[in-house]
Amino acid sequence: MKKIPIGISSCLLxxxxxxxxxxxxxxxxxxxxxxxxxxxxxxxxxAIGLGIPRPTLHLVKTNxxxxxxxxxxPDNDVTERLREYAQQQKPAHAELxxxxxxxxxxxxxxxxxxxxxxGQPRREGVGIYAxxxxxxxxxxxxxxxxxxxxxxxxxxxxxxxxxxxxxKQMLAEGLTPRSLTTFHARHKLIIMSxxxxxxxxxxxxxxxxENLASVAGxxxxxxxxxxxxxxxxxxxxxxxxxxxxxLKKELDADDKAELCEIIERYRNGEIPLIVPLTLLRHHFRKxxxxxxxxSYYMSPYPQELRLINQL
Length: 311
Prior knowledge:
- The chain is an alpha/beta fold.
- It folds into 2 domains: 105 residues; 161 residues, no CATH class.
- It contains 13 helices and 8 strands.
- The protein has a 4-stranded parallel beta sheet, covered by helices on one side. Strands 4-3-6-7 form a 4-stranded mixed beta sheet, with no helix packed on it.
């Protein structure tokens, strides 16, 4: 599989573009994710002509509007220039399958950016460029580098990246009713771990050549929204038990008891998700099932990322 195109704040790759002339190189992003992601760096503040180094900016609430202005020079308002840059990059952003933003930045922060009102800060803002970019591309998985330190948030982001990548691959190969329903079938167990998939199933049940584009558009919006929910252990247990049902005729009493025990130990937080998944794969190697074999739940992304080892 070729590397997946991902947008990223330039400073996270080690580029010296920050206001102080430095960078915020992230070793996990560069060293681990860089093996699988083709990073496309963006620094909106430099792109709109601000220097390196440069006077610092912050978000200010004025007349119910949020503006990005200089801390020492409030007349230096770059709000519209940041929005315009996001609009200019709209075609480039459309080619991406995810985006990693720099936290706390008045231009790039995804959430909880300080907004000053009457001189008092409140963490309630979104970076101006980030806000415009995500509004233009609501399907795009977006995360901040700081939040990627959380195993659940990291797995959730990367899973969404791979789902959107596979979706774009399918569209590039030519969308058909069959390819759409096959895509859903292969992701059904992943969807089940996040939410009830019955609404999406009913949507696809009525797909025809005539309404294909409309149904596909509705489907991917629902899918990417559902996948934003971080999966908990109880939801994974529900899927694991569902998968176990495909082995009910193949397992003897001892194997069934062992699998039930392993799933229960996962539920109790004693072992990571990789343990019951590995045992299930062992049984399905001896008793293959086409549906389970095609499902992405068992292998949602390259095993080398080791994300499920920490869940």
